[in-house]
Amino acid sequence: MISCVRAGFGLQSLLLVVATISIFAGPSRHAMAERVFALITKNVGDPNFIEAWRGCNDAARIKGDRCVHLGGDNLGYFRAQNRAIEDAVGEGYSGVAISVTKSEFIAENGLPKLIETGVPVITFDSDLIAPFHHLRQAFIGVENHLIGRMLARELQNRLPFGGNVCLMSAGPYDPNLNERINGFRSEIRKTSDLGSQPPLNGSGGWFESPRCPWFNKDNLDLAMTQFRQSMLDDRLDAFITVGSWPLHDPQRYVQTFRNLPADARQNRPLILIGGTGAPTPEHVSILRDKMVDGLVAIDFYNLGNVVYHYLVSLTQDKVLGDLPIVQPHFIGEDAYSNKDDTQ
Q1: Which is nearest to 307 in space by CA: 72, 110, 175, 138?
Q2: Locate the Periplasmic binding protein domain: which residues (predicted)?
Q3: 340 close to 13: Cβ distance less than 8 angstroms
Q4: Which residues pair with residue 165 across a beta bridge?
Q5: Please, are residues 300 and 49 in contact by the beta-carbon 8 Å criterion?
Q6: 43-64 pLDDT tens trace
Q7: pLDDT in tens, 187-218
Q8: Alpha carbon of residue 292 to chain centroid
Q9: Is the Cα torsion angle 185, 327, 295, 103 positive or negative in sign?
Q10: pLDDT-above-90 percentage for the chain
Q11: Where are the beta strands (DSSP E) in the chain?
Q12: 200 DSSP assignment
């Protein structure tokens, strides 16, 4: 039986931290000028980042503030994110949170210009790599290595004798996604080393397909093409994503899956998807219909809520340190035993 979580999504500890940070948010701001905080993400159309922005903005509105969502899109990627950072210079934001694409690029281009303005800058979801940690005041997010390890553990539980696996990521430069891949490979190799890991070549009986990892450039069309090609590859035993791209459009995912040849659906590889948001009714339906075998989910709405409160604390010179507080959860197809329960 696969371990799973239900409606509560295990957020009690997260909400406690939010409440703790909010103590530092100061008195009511109804009589004070609106402050504007910026979330600069990898892709403004990503449903998970939209949820993070909603969490930030809903928390901000309570205090008379506002959060805005800036960043790249499917075409611009890290250069578009850097432009968004440069555009934020001089805009008067009270604080900025960045989900990092390519650390070296933004650290050597837009980020120093933003820091020079004196605005508080943190990272969330995806951190700068270690040599550039001094350019941000804190990181708030998940233990990304753990997401990779969780995916690997479920893979080994399902297929203990190994096989051929294909990984999917956005690109080779995303710090958080690389951590998830390294966590996956470290778990398969049964090592505590969290550094860069080469592709699997027989460890634990597992081999990575030579065409993988697929890099989809955070583009849904490309991600779905790569997903379909993987489903048609009869050499694959498992297809694992370290981000939620195939489910960004659940209806399209279902249509793509159902349009596969009958033998490809029947003999498909194990499908595990990491880094989704909190489960939606569409996710539940896809799990129940056995179009996906498991998700590793994150509550991005509450992540955005915490980001707002932390940025407020920085405007008051209250520094709390890094808060990697959002715990991922594995959700299997048996997570919802009642067919009518989609909450």
Answers
A1: 138
A2: 37-316
A3: no
A4: 208, 238
A5: yes
A6: 999 999 999 999 999 999 999 9
A7: 999 998 888 899 999 999 999 999 999 999 98
A8: 18
A9: negative
A10: 76
A11: 36-41, 66-71, 95-98, 121-124, 139-140, 163-169, 206-208, 214-215, 238-241, 270-276, 294-297, 329-332
A12: P
Q: Which ranges of 160-260 would DSSP assign to H, the alpha helix?
A: 175-189, 220-231, 250-258
Burial class for 106, CB neighbours closer than 10 Å (0-12, 13-18, 19+):
buried
Q: How far is CA 264 from CA 176, 180, 221, 226, in A?
A: 32, 28, 20, 15
List b or e across 37-67, with b for residues whose CB sees 16 or more CB atoms inside 10 angstroms: bbbbbbbbebbbbbbbbbbbbebbeebebbb
CA distance 265 to 147: 27
Q: Is the pLDDT at 6 greater than 50, yes or no?
A: no
DSSP code at position 188: H
Per residue in 145-190, pLDDT tens? 999 999 999 999 999 999 999 999 999 989 999 999 999 999 999 9
259: which residues sit within 8 A by CB, 6+ positions away? none
Residue ranges of domains in the chain, CATH in brackets: 12-141+300-327 (3.40.50.2300), 144-297 (3.40.50.2300)
The pLDDT value recorded for residue 321 is 67
The average pLDDT across 85-92 equals 95
Closest CA to 243 of 12, 43, 3, 15: 43
Q: Residue 169 in contact with residue 177, Cβ under 8 Å? A: yes
pTM of the predicted protein model: 0.84
